[in-house]
């Protein structure tokens, strides 16, 4: 999911809409904005679909008055998957004893189901299927005197990954979980402030990056400025390494590192670890592009656009007909046949999850007359599900959980298949010595199976057995 907040600026909603538009890649299912105006109170618009289709009309922005506002783009990883109900669209809002509070959450809580069960037994009535609502109920039941204190108390009970932006009548609050699994940054926006999942959202609205919210930090932004608190036990940070590989936008800067540069460096590492004689290096757009550039630069094999992406493939387009939907990746990607014919091609993609995309692409490339097809993947084999906010399928649907690399190569039908090593990936994101197995700097559970926070709900349901 993606988060954006604006505090103490005229027409906060228009900045939030811009910010969410820049974060659309983090969630396409739904978007919502909540604003606050002292005369009108809280206003909220929550819709299914893209930001550009829902938050560009003047009437919508005018329905969201105020100098402070927060917003969310949704990508479901908990709750009802794939078919977001309007009740699950964030920010969630609640009237608490001391005033209203809106909450937007990126990440996934690993013990939400256990807490929810307990809260329901004690009389809480849940409105949504989202794990985020647990935080609201814990806040509502707290005896602390103000909203930030209630939020601290609630967040000490939940486990897992959370970056949160919350809005009250007088404050905007930003928090990251103790490991800092998901990103969150602070910027100056005119006389006011902005918070966003990624720095690319600051660029679009002219906000000036100040710093990242630190793992385990809570910032409270008010008329007094920005105050910083440490509500949790200190822990070693474990930022999501997959944000660098795939999830974040390449024009964002995370942990002081350009995401584009990390991805290009992954391609350089891949070319060193897994060289091959070939005529062309082609990305599988758009996610494989920076790594393909790095592979080409390091190997000296020319870079070319062997696969062309249709920029206008919207989600809504495929809905009308089953027959069209079955055409799958062909709607989005097409082979540049004249270029590919007779060539030995290196195809670079960010990840292999179920293997469906790779299989279809290999078929298209072979149809187009490629002489050889070599897959190079910018992440290690995805063999474990993510429980911290990236939507991976259950373990038995992950190709790498069921097959060896040679079996995957044969299944995909390619001449060679190589993944970057975990050490190579760490080097690409700035760890010169690779991954320190006794104290890894990142979360890499989907590749290593080492979960920095036990996924307790999932374990209770036997998801990993
Ligand atoms: P597969 O077809 O192997 O299941 O999926 C691999 C493709 O899905 C890759 O091209 C990658 O760009 C994309 N992908 C990887 N992770 C995610 C994700 O979390 N969400 C979405 N929508 N796509 C992803
Ligand atoms: Fe990121 Fe993978 Fe960890 Fe999930 S399991 S937070 S995708 S590194
Ligand atoms: Mg892709």
TrEMBL record:
UniProt catalytic activity: 5-phospho-beta-D-ribosylamine + L-glutamate + diphosphate = 5-phospho-alpha-D-ribose 1-diphosphate + L-glutamine + H2O
- Protein origin, superkingdom: Bacteria
Q: What are its E.C. numbers?
A: 2.4.2.14
The record's Gene Ontology biological-process terms are:
'de novo' IMP biosynthetic process; purine nucleobase biosynthetic process
- Look up the record and name the cofactor or cofactors this protein needs: Mg(2+); [4Fe-4S] cluster
* Record-listed [4Fe-4S] cluster binding positions: 240, 386, 443, 446
InterPro entries linked to this entry: GATase_2_dom (IPR017932), Ntn_hydrolases_N (IPR029055), PRTase-like (IPR029057), PRTase_dom (IPR000836), PurF (IPR005854), PurF_N (IPR035584)
Keyword Ubl conjugation attached: no
Any one GO molecular function term: amidophosphoribosyltransferase activity
Keyword Metal-binding annotated: yes
Annotated active site: 1 (nucleophile)
The record describes how the cofactor is bound as: Binds 1 Mg(2+) ion per subunit.
Keyword list (alphabetical) reads: 4Fe-4S, Glutamine amidotransferase, Glycosyltransferase, Iron, Iron-sulfur, Magnesium, Metal-binding, Purine biosynthesis, Transferase
List of residues binding Mg(2+): 287, 349-350
Q: In which pathway does it act?
A: Purine metabolism; IMP biosynthesis via de novo pathway; N(1)-(5-phospho-D-ribosyl)glycinamide from 5-phospho-alpha-D-ribose 1-diphosphate: step 1/2
Q: Describe the location of the Glutamine amidotransferase type-2 domain by residue ranges.
A: 1-224
> What NCBIfam families would the database entry show?
purF
Give the similarity note: In the C-terminal section; belongs to the purine/pyrimidine phosphoribosyltransferase family.
Query: What is the protein's known function?
Result: Catalyzes the formation of phosphoribosylamine from phosphoribosylpyrophosphate (PRPP) and glutamine.
Q: What is this protein called?
A: Amidophosphoribosyltransferase
Species the sequence originates in: Oceanicella actignis
């Amino acid at each position: 999911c993606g988060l954006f907040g604006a505090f103490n600026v005229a027409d906060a909603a228009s900045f939030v809409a811009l910010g969410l538009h820049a974060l659309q890649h983090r969630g396409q299912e739904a978007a919502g904005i909540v604003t606050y105006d002292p005369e009108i109170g809280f206003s909220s618009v929550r819709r299914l679909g893209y930001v550009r289709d829902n938050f560009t009309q003047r009437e919508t922005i005018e329905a969201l008055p105020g100098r402070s506002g927060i917003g969310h783009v949704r990508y479901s990883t908990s709750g009802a998957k794939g078919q977001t109900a309007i009740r699950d669209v964030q920010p969630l809002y609640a009237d608490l004893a001391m005033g209203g509070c809106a909450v937007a959450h990126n990440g996934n809580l690993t013990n939400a189901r256990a807490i929810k069960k307990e809260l329901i037994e004690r009389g809480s009535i849940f409105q949504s299927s989202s794990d985020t609502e647990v935080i609201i109920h814990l806040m509502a039941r707290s005896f602390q005197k103000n909203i930030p204190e209630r939020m601290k108390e609630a967040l000490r009970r939940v486990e897992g990954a959370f970056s949160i932006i919350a809005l009250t009548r007088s404050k905007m609050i930003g928090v990251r979980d103790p490991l800092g699994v998901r990103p969150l940054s602070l910027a100056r926006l005119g006389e006011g402030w902005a918070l966003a999942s990624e720095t690319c959202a600051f660029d679009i609205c002219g906000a000036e990056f100040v710093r990242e919210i630190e793992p385990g930090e809570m910032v409270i932004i008010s008329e007094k400025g920005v105050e910083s608190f440490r509500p949790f036990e200190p822990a070693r940070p474990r930022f999501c390494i997959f944000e660098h590989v795939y999830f974040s936008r390449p024009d964002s800067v995370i942990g002081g590192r350009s995401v584009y540069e990390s991805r290009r460096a992954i391609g350089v590492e891949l070319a060193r670890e897994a060289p091959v004689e070939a005529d062309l290096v082609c990305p599988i757009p758009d996610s494989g592009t920076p790594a393909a550039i790095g592979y080409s630069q390091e190997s000296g094999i020319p870079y070319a656009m062997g696969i062309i992406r249709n920029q206008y493939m919207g989600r809504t387009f495929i809905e009308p007909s089953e027959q069209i939907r079955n055409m799958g990746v062909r709607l989005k990607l097409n082979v540049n046949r004249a270029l590919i014919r007779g060539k030995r091609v290196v195809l670079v993609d960010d990840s292999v999850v179920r293997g469906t995309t790779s299989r279809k692409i290999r078929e298209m490339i072979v149809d187009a007359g490629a002489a050889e097809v070599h897959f190079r993947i910018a992440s290690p084999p995805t063999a474990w599900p993510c429980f911290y906010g990236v939507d991976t399928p259950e373990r038995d649907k992950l190709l790498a959980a069921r097959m060896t690399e040679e079996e995957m190569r044969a299944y995909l039908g390619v001449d060679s298949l190589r993944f970057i090593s975990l050490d190579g990936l760490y080097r690409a994101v700035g760890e010169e010595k690779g991954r320190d197995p006794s104290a890894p700097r990142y979360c890499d559970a989907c590749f290593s199976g080492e979960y920095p926070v036990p996924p307790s709900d999932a374990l209770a349901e036997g998801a990993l057995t």
